[in-house]
Design goal:
globular, 77% helix, mainly alpha, 212 residues
């Protein structure tokens, strides 16, 4: 009725994508280890909110604009890379200072679920590769004679968000027990340093990404 097909294959594809390590999974992991279940769930919820933005953009044709415009792609790409570098800098500063402060410069705010939610939104929305991914993936599961391609886009986008959210929430509860193995300040400094290196690498990978 919605003009979609092969939904079992779509669900399998979404699972493989969610299980592949990337910016979203790494942000969820680091925030869970640093702030516990509450922080991990807040970051994951922000990531899913970002996916809602990309799904709406794909349905409304904005993702096609990013794909077609080298300038639009570059602007979004460099903004995303700069934000990831900012996160890396905050974590590195915490590691060098020997503190357990979170990514944001304001340590009190950075511990709040609202701040972690915003981090999740920004890391996802500022990644143009995700916009192109939605544009490339969703049409493969929409019938050529679908009565409303926009409605089909929205349906598949909502499916992706719900399934992706379930995966990340389960991931949070899976890795949260690792917090019990913390070895005090040295462990936390090491986590901050490793997180800084990881996000710097992700920023470099995004900065050198090309349009498909």
């Amino acid at each position: 009725m919605l003009g979609t097909h092969s939904l079992a294959l779509f669900a399998t594809t979404v699972f493989v994508i969610n299980a592949t390590p990337g910016v979203d999974m790494m942000l969820t992991l680091t925030q869970t280890l640093r702030h516990g279940v509450r922080g991990g769930l807040a970051a994951a919820a922000g990531i899913m909110a970002g996916c809602v933005v990309h799904a709406l953009a794909a349905a409304l044709g904005l993702a096609a604009l990013i794909a077609a415009s080298a300038a639009a792609f570059s602007v979004l790409k460099w903004l995303g890379a700069a934000y990831l570098l900012w996160l890396a800098f905050g974590m590195l500063r915490s590691a060098l200072a020997g503190e357990t402060a979170a990514v944001l410069p304001q340590s009190v705010e950075s511990r709040s679920p609202a701040a972690l939610f915003r981090q999740g939104v920004l890391t996802n929305v500022l990644n143009p590769k995700i916009a192109l991914f939605f544009l490339a993936l969703l049409p493969q599961f929409i019938d050529a004679d679908a009565p409303s391609k926009t409605l089909a886009f929205l349906f598949l986008g909502a499916w992706f968000v719900v399934q992706g959210g379930a995966f990340l929430f389960a991931f949070v509860f899976l890795v949260a027990p690792l917090r019990r193995w913390q070895a005090g300040g040295a462990w936390k400094r090491g986590l901050n340093a490793a997180g800084a290196g990881l996000f710097a690498w992700l920023a470099a990978r995004l900065a050198f990404a090309e349009r498909a």
